[in-house]
């Protein structure tokens, strides 16, 4: 083990100084013998120990004797830590390749991460995380087809056009990164060049009082699903009403100048949130009777079942662990994309 530790150190030193390269070559020869289950060259070990201890034995004889006695044990620890570091760096690199972040559970802790909201709520542990990441390498290399995850109940920003390619977003109404991606989509005119649709996915969080990461995400999602089923009596735009609700949440401001998403996330009670959503419905052209119907549908078992169906798509088929996720042009992105990349 000593020759392996020596090779690691000498190889690094040899990168910066040619004086260490002959010793590094000798160390590699010793490592090669070890890998083929042959004994290491004793002369090499003694040569390295002599060079190391000879520098300190005159000034610090006690330290030299201590190192001579325990140097093999230190070599085992050093090689073990080096291997562990190598595996950790490899895992971080794989995570960056698969998830666009070196730390999927806490992307904010990775300076290389794109902006996103984490879906994972628990740390699976090092080895389980490594296994999950390796298992998803094929999904990173595959060609993603948004059409595989859409159906008759999907809502399109503009009426579906067979001449346009399809793009699919996975968003949480309470996620700030989802709002930023939506803003970039509008800046790039992406929604005009693609058949753009979405899956609303309120991020679950077991330790919150209502089971979700953002307090009103599930409520807003129920309204999104309900509004798909009710056409406004007096529509005030040619954009689908559920898309108008997403747009209002992601980009709108209230009378006081506060961003609606932040107001929903931080300031509103459940009754206040329902009142705000009812006001939005009125703005979009729903009559009083239709607004009552939207409320009824939002609380129905049918809408709850549809949200569970969408959650299964996100978690079991797409395997999203951070959002926004967007699929287009055969690629998948789990982060906010700059407007230039969307053009």
Would you spell out the secondary-structure blueprint of this structure?
Layout: H1 2-16, H2 21-35, H3 42-54, H4 61-99, E1 117-118, H5 126-135, H6 137-141, E2 166-171, H7 176-188, H8 190-193, E3 195-200, H9 217-227, H10 241-251, H11 260-266, H12 270-283, H13 288-298, H14 301-318, E4 322-323, E5 325-328, E6 331-333, H15 339-342
Parallel strand pairs: 2-3
Antiparallel strand pairs: 1-4, 2-5, 5-6
Could you give a short description of this structure?
The protein has 343 residues and is of the alpha+beta class. Helices cover 55% and strands 7% of the residues.
Key phrases:
about 350 residues, alpha+beta, Glutaredoxin, 2 domains, four-stranded mixed β-sheet, two-stranded antiparallel ribbon, 15 helices, 6 strands, elongated
Overview of the structural elements:
The protein has helices spanning 2-16, 21-35, 42-54, 61-99, 126-135, 137-141, 176-188, 190-193, 217-227, 241-251, 260-266, 270-283, 288-298, 301-318, 339-342, and strands spanning 117-118, 166-171, 195-200, 322-323, 325-328, 331-333. It is of the alpha+beta class. The strands form two sheets. The chain has a four-stranded mixed beta sheet with strand order 3-2-5-6. The longest helix is centred in the first third of the chain and has 39 residues, at 61-99. The protein starts with a helix and ends with a helix.
